[in-house]
Amino acid sequence: MGRPWQALRALRLRLLGPEKELVGTDQFGNKYYRVPKHETRAGQIIAERRFVEAINRQAYQYEMGDFPTEWEAWIRKKRNDPPTIEEILKNENYRDEMKQKIKDVSEKDKLLQAKEYKEGLVAEPVHTQVKGHASAPYYGKKEPSQDPTSTASTFQPGSWMPPGSGSGHNK
């Protein structure tokens, strides 16, 4: 490389910083990049930056789990080295195996519970239906009627007292 090119490259690095480096891609086609640690013109040191260029998505459309866990850990700097395809596939197979084992254990547990209920070894859970809220004054009792019980013609101001107040006088 000639001297002029070296000078231009050094000037570009000072003004714009280093170029992004492609680190890898995932099975969905997302590309993962890093910008190495560098120093600005003013002498400020900029830490390494890692990011992803997603395929067919806008940044605001992402949700948790859209990227492979291994790549997400690399972007968040939880790991130093980017993941390999073999590692991602191995972990994906492991997760699938665990899901299948959980499903099998859950089915066995349901069968065992049904057998224990049938043999009378364990009492079946009682399914209660309670209407209302526990803090309501009629909790567990018959719900009050929605129909009015009196009319305005029999109302006497100051005659009503809360239940359990003891006396009929205002205090």
Label the overall shape: elongated
Give me the Rg, rounded.
Answer: 35 Å
Total strands: the figure is 5
Spell the H/E element sequence: HEEEEEHH
- Provide the residue-averaged pLDDT: 79
Sheet with the most strands: spatial strand order: 1-2-5
Uncertain stretches of 5 or more adjacent residues: none
C-alpha end-to-end distance? 100 Å
Structural class: alpha+beta
Percent of sequence in beta strands: 5-15%
Q: Give a short account of the largest sheet.
A: 3 strands, antiparallel
Helical proportion, percent range = 25-40%
User: Number of helical runs?
Assistant: 3
Describe this structure in words.
The structure is a single chain. This protein is of the alpha+beta class and 171 residues long. It has helices spanning 3-16, 69-75, 85-119, and strands spanning 21-25, 31-35, 38-39, 45-46, 49-53. The strands form two sheets. Strands 1-2-5 form a three-stranded antiparallel beta sheet, with helices on one face. It has a two-stranded antiparallel sheet with strand order 3-4. A hairpin with a 5-residue loop joins strand 3 (38-39) and strand 4. The chain is elongated, with a radius of gyration of 35 Å. The chain starts with a helix and ends in a 52-residue tail after the last helix. The relative contact order is 0.06. The mean pLDDT is 79.
